Each structure stands twice: as C-alpha cells, then as structure tokens.
Amino acid sequence: MSLDTVLARIDADLDQSLDRLLDLLRIPSISTDPAYKADCTRAADWLVEELTSLGFDASSRPTPGHPMVVAHGGTGDKHLLFYGHYDVQPVDPLHLWDRDPFDPQVQDTPKGKVIRARGASDDKGQLMTFIEACRAWKAVHGTLPGKLTIFLEGEEESGSPSLIPFMQDNAAELKADIALICDTGMFEDTTPAIVTMLRGLLGEEITIHGPDKDLHSGMYGGAAINPIRVLSRILGNLHDDEGRITIPHFYDGVQDLPDAIRAQWQALSFDHAKFLGDVGLSQPAGEQDRTPLEMLWSRPTAEVNGIWGGYTGDGFKTVLPAQAHAKVSFRLVAGQDPDALRDNFRAWVEAQLPPDCRAEFHGHGNSPAGVMSVEAPAFDAARQALSDEWGKPAAFVGCGGSIPIAGYFKTYLDMDAMLIGFGRDDDLIHSPNEKYDLESFHKGIRSWARVLDRLA
C-alpha cells in the first residue's frame, strides 16, 4: 500500500481527528497554576490512553511536578523520537476571550476555518498532528511507521523544572537517532519550514551602587556621583555606531552563515520593511553589514529590557538615587559560551565604574544556542516531504527566540533535533482567542505522514 493510501485515510478521517483534538483541548492543563494539577494529570492520562490504543507501550511517568508521557512502538532500523507538550498557558485576562477558552469550537473566519481554544496551536494541535499521522498509518498498514518513541512534557509553559532531571535519569530509554519537535510554525504563514538554528539566551540584572543613601540634588548635585548616569553611560557603550556589540571577546566562536543557507534565506524574499513597518519602525538597527534575517536568526544580540532608578512616581522629586538598575539579555548563537560571556560582561561593566561605585549582578539563567547538522540525510528528506505536501519549497530557517528542548536533546542525549511546525503568526499563542488553522491541522497530519514515510 502506498503513501497515497495513508493520505487518503487522513482526509477521510479528518472529522474524527478533529473530535479527538477538541476532547484534549477541553482539558484545562495549565501547568503553572497548582489549582490545575489534577487537570494536567488528566491530560497525560488521556494521551496515554490514545497512544495505547494505537499499539504503543505508553505510560504516565511521575515527576516532582506534572507527569511525563513516554510511549514506545514500532520497529525499524531508524529510531525517531517525537517531542511535544500537553500543558498550556493561563487564560488571563479571561474577559478578553470571545468564548470559554476550554470550550473549543471550529469557527469560520475571512482566512478560513480555525480551531479556537487555549492550546489549539501551542501545543496540543501541533502534537496531535503527529499522533493522528501515526493513527492513519496504523489503520492502513497495521503497523506503526517505524521505531518510534513519543515524549510529551507537562511543564513546558512553566519553565520545565522536571525536564532535565528526567532526561538524565532516562537517557538510555529516550536516546534515538533524531528528535522531531512540533512547536514552531510556517515562514510568513505560507512556506513550510524546518528550524535548524536556535539562539540561546543569557539574562543579567545589574545594580550600580553609589552613595549610601538618596541625596538632595540641590545640596549634592554636581559633586556626588549619580548611579543612573553611570549605568546609562555603560549601557550606551554596549553597541558601536555600526550596531556591533563592544564587549571584549563577545564574537569569539561566532561563525559566518554557510553559503547554501544564506542562499535559501535570500530566496525567501523576506520583506523587512513590512516586518518593521508593522510595529511602527522603518530601519534595521543591528549590525549594518548583515541582512535583517541574519540579524534575527544567526547573529547574537545584546538588549536592555528594563532600566530604573530614583523617583519614578507622579510629580517630581529632585533626588540623586543611591542605586540604579537594569535588566540586559543576550541572544546567543552557536560557538558562544554563555558562562564565558557572563564573566566577560561583568568584567566589562566593572572596568567602566568610576570611584565610589560598585556593581552587583544577578544572573537570570542561560542556555546555549543550537545548530542542527543539516548535512544529515534526514533533514533533506524531511524538507522534500514538506515541499511535496505544501506545493512550494520548504526552507531551513532560523529562530530568533530560544527553544531550550532542542539544545537539551543535544546536551543530554547527544542527538540532533528537527523542528517542524505548522503554526501561523496570527495564532495568538499565549494570548486571548488563541487559534489553530484547520488547514494547519489537516496538512500538518499529512505532512508528518510524508515525513515518516521518508524517514522511517
């Protein structure tokens, strides 16, 4: 039996697939709120039951937080692991929703039918595309499409506190040839994409201490050092006139983009003027010798996310503050060491302090960047499968944000990850009225069937 038979089965069973997704969406599995702990367990059990019905050896594994779902099934020379998460974001503010966020509904919109509910796109709709592809394959062939492990997390939206210990404790069981992750989207809503570059993230909070108390500016202004002035000068020195970051050794290890990937990105015809224009801007502000997509996907950044000090209430108060504060984040690319960068940044700040000032630092986590080995045959096979389904060439793309799970697979299981998703920019993930296009759900199932056909 051919792949066409599986695709036809997916088309014929779409209504039933949709019903199952709606059932899962009705479970309010909000991981960050202890009031929904039982619902998170219920969602995990629901998935275990579904996977067991497909022939997987599935179980809900306890953690100090919410359960992990692990399932094994099928046979074959190539072992694939699929990752998704069943937990969802809180729904506040509830009054901005047009309907109950856990009463899912298929709605007609000017852009087509959408599935409206919390978790529809992030990530229940996405993970169900893979499960439904396995279901159709099993219905047609009587077997699963190769040797598969399914690994579903229940704490992704609350920082994944149990994830790394669980992966370390179960590394031998989870190890596979490659990980498949469905928690991303299409490029500009129409081009299928495989994310192969993920930026890492480093956060630093700085406090500059000056005088031992707030001072009257009429009595001390001019003679006393002002921590806000010191901090502002330091932060202003983060970038040169060409947009490059000035911290010593910041670019150590940063590689130029491979020509083949640069050519793919140029073929995407990214409209940076519209991208910036949609938020009231007109000119790219980063490294002036780089294209906007390079800035977003393959170049590191340093950004001031917050700055405060002194009196900021209503009215006016002529005070020289004793302290000034800022939060600075760095998006990292392959080759950068987060720990070394933290040390270099702190030394750079301290070297600019005048007498009578000292700096206090508080780290806010760090994660390295991830770059996948696209030379592996699996990546080109998956790219061709997506191109066949969507009728246009799929692209290897970067991601300006950070998806730590991909890096964790590399760090703790020594396996590359392939990030394939079908979300769209207007899905309103984490926001009121979240949705997932019915086309994304339908063609997502078909896409995974094609990918599995080529990989497994």
Can I get a quick summary?
The protein is 35% helix and 22% strand. It has 15 helices and 18 strands.
SSE blueprint and pairings:
Blueprint: H1 3-12, H2 14-25, H3 37-53, E1 57-61, E2 68-73, E3 79-85, E4 105-109, E5 112-116, H4 124-141, E6 147-153, H5 163-169, H6 171-174, E7 178-181, E8 193-198, E9 200-209, E10 215-216, H7 217-220, H8 227-236, H9 259-267, H10 272-277, H11 292-297, E11 301-309, E12 319-320, E13 323-332, H12 338-351, E14 358-367, E15 370-371, H13 377-390, E16 395-399, H14 404-413, E17 417-420, E18 435-437, H15 438-455
Parallel strand pairs: 3-6, 3-7, 7-17, 8-16
Antiparallel strand pairs: 1-2, 2-6, 4-5, 5-18, 8-15, 8-17, 9-13, 9-14, 10-12, 11-13
Written account of the structure:
The protein is of the alpha+beta class. Helices cover 35% and strands 22% of the residues. Strands 1, 2, 3, 6, 7, 8, 15, 16 and 17 form a nine-stranded mixed beta sheet that branches. A hairpin with a 2-residue loop joins strand 4 (105-109) and strand 5. It is globular and about 85 Å long.
Mean pLDDT score = 95
Low-confidence stretches: none
- What is the strand content? 15-25%
Helix-strand makeup class? alpha+beta
Shape: globular
- DSSP strand tally: 18
Question: How would you describe the oligomerization state of the chains in this entry?
Answer: single chain
Please summarize the sheet with the most strands: 9 strands, mixed
Distance between the termini: 15 Å
Summarize the amount of helix as a percent range: 25-40%
Helix count from the secondary structure assignment:
15
Radius of gyration: 25 Å
